[in-house]
């Protein structure tokens, strides 16, 4: 179901949902800076609140995420800056609306799609980066321990790798039919299980989809957890992919509200893919997730939830 954005014709790629003191916020990919929306309800009307973060010399801000730690809000987002293509940065603010400042560049290489989480073992950043020293070259999901909100241990572990041809970043997008993409990690725990959701394929076409991996463990150090990708007896079986009313479904975040899980993701209504601006029709949508005993199912609706 598409969310309602009041008086706004913007798109909402890579939506990250965040709740703070009964108010909901969505942060999205944008050119001039991270854009933020605000609402009192998940499925009500969302208000555009402007630019939450914009760094000197930066542009093309991708896939932000936010966490609150000791009363301070920290944002993790990649951008193009100082001639570097999509390096992850951290910044902080006293408000979820920003401005997020005091930014620090975290890695000296391509690094995107953050999700910072805290467990009893400390802080861990999920993110995606490239690996070309392997059989299925491309982008994979890594996790790195953080010593504090600004300081990565810089000993990341590769966690999720591509397994299927359906996870290729298609030649239409990349020009290389051997490039694979696993990105957009989102981690959460329910009961005895840990879940690691992800996106794969090409965000610019209808191959983009959402899958997940699981681990039944009480391990708090996330660099030590072995996740198993959920398949259909070894066959490709995404949680969400194109259906009768939307395609390009991917890069999402998850929230548990009033005992129910919801995914906030982006998708596109169907239109001729040859038309200009096709990929940038990504708008934020919501669906209910059912999470139990290592299994996730998604309820998607065209017009209501």
Number of helices: 1
Global outline: globular
Assess the beta-strand content as a share of residues. Answer: over 45%
Order of helices and strands: EEEEEEEEEEEEEEHEEEEEEEE
Q: Give a quick account of the main beta sheet: strands, pairing sense, barrel closure.
A: 9 strands, mixed
Mean pLDDT: 94
**Low-pLDDT stretches:** none
Number of E strands: 22
Rg for CA atoms: 18 Å
Structural class: mainly beta
Residues in helices, as a percent range: under 10%
Quote the distance from N terminus to C terminus. 7 Å
Concise structural overview:
This protein has one helix spanning 171-174; strands spanning 4-5, 16-20, 23-28, 34-39, 45-53, 58-69, 72-81, 84-93, 101-105, 112-119, 122-131, 138-148, 151-152, 157-160, 180-190, 193-200, 209-216, 228-229, 247-257, 260-268, 283-292, 295-299. The protein has 305 residues and is an all-beta fold.
């Amino acid at each position: 179901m598409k969310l309602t954005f009041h008086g706004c014709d913007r798109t909402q790629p890579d939506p990250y949902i965040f709740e703070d003191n009964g108010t909901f916020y969505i942060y999205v990919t944008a050119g001039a800076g991270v854009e933020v929306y605000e609402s009192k309800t998940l499925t009500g009307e969302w208000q555009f609140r402007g630019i939450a973060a914009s760094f000197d010399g930066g542009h093309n801000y991708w896939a932000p995420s936010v966490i609150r730690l000791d009363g301070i809000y920290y944002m993790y987002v990649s951008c193009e800056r100082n001639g570097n293509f999509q390096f992850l940065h951290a910044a902080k603010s006293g408000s979820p609306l920003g401005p997020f400042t005091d930014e620090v560049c975290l890695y000296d290489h391509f690094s995107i799609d953050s999700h910072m989480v805290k467990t009893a073992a400390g802080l861990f950043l999920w993110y995606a980066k490239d690996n070309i020293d392997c059989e299925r070259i491309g982008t994979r999901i890594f996790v790195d321990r953080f010593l504090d909100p600004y300081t990565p241990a810089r000993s990341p572990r590769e966690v999720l790798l591509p397994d299927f041809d359906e996870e290729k970043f298609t030649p239409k997008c990349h020009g290389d039919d051997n490039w694979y993409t696993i990105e957009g990690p989102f981690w959460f725990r329910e009961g005895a299980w840990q879940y690691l959701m992800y996106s794969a394929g090409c965000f610019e076409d209808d191959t983009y989809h959402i899958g997940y991996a699981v681990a039944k463990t009480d391990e708090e150090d996330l660099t030590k957890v072995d996740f198993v990708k959920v398949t259909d007896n070894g066959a490709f079986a995404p949680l969400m992919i194109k259906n009768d009313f939307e395609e390009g479904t991917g890069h999402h975040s998850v929230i548990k509200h009033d005992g129910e899980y919801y995914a906030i993701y982006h998708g596109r209504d169907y239109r001729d893919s040859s038309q200009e601006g096709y990929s940038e029709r990504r708008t934020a949508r919501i669906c209910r997730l059912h999470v139990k005993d290592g299994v996730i199912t998604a309820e998607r609706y065209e017009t209501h939830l």
